[in-house]
Amino acid sequence: MKTEYLSVAETAKLVRKALAKAFPGVKFSVRSESYSGGCSVNVRWTDGPLTREVETVAKMFEGKRFDGMIDMGWSASLWLLPDGSATVASDPGSVGSMGVCQAVREWMPEPGAKLISTGAYVFCTRDVSRELTERVRNWIKRRGGWEAIWRARDEEQAIHMVGRRSRIVNGALFVAKDQYI
Question: Where are the chain's structural domains?
């Protein structure tokens, strides 16, 4: 099967479409950028979904990989599925060069899938508005402030103060993503 090479602008269109489908009503800025070392798609938004949730959707179109352990970059090919999503077709990884990224090779996942190469990195950045910052600040104050949470005798007392779906791990408070603030 012949690989279709997509420009960074075409990749940005795919990312924009997938984000609109996955997060209706959220306004994303999706910009493409070309530079001497390659190209990238930069995604930004304010408040809304968490970065890891957006990365799950946007980075499926990332055709460039990088292993910081050995300072090596490489390209991967992708399957563009009929529903507009993408999955890895072939990724040589970096293990053969003493890196840590495993190689991946997948057969065509379904009829109608197209083999593509985007050649682009995808970066996602979530901005936090003053309004959300103030809501979080007030939520913490209503529970006695961080000092009260940190002075809690044990994890159970701290969890009671901030909500049942939260946890303290190694001294850090983790609030469940669907905990209302």
Answer: 4-127, 130-174
DSSP β-bridge partners for residue 78: 88, 116
pLDDT digits over 19-73, tens only? 999 999 999 999 999 998 889 999 999 988 888 899 999 999 999 999 999 999 8
What confidence tens digit (pLDDT) does each residue in 67-126 have?
A: 999 999 889 999 999 999 999 999 988 989 988 889 989 898 889 999 999 989 999 998
Of 117, 56, 68, nearest in space to 43 by CA: 56
> Are the C-beta atoms of residues 54 and 23 closer than 8 Å to each other?
yes
**Residue in 50, 83, 77, 43 with CA at minimum distance from that of residue 62:** 77
Distance (Å, rounded) from C-alpha 85 to C-alpha 74?
Answer: 22
- Answer yes or no: are the C-beta atoms of 17 and 84 closer than 8 Å: yes
Please give the sequence-ordered ranges of beta strands (E in DSSP) within the chain, or none if there are none.
4-5, 29-35, 38-46, 64-67, 72-75, 77-80, 86-91, 104-105, 114-117, 121-127, 167-169, 172-174
pTM of the predicted model as reported, rounded to 2 decimal places: 0.75
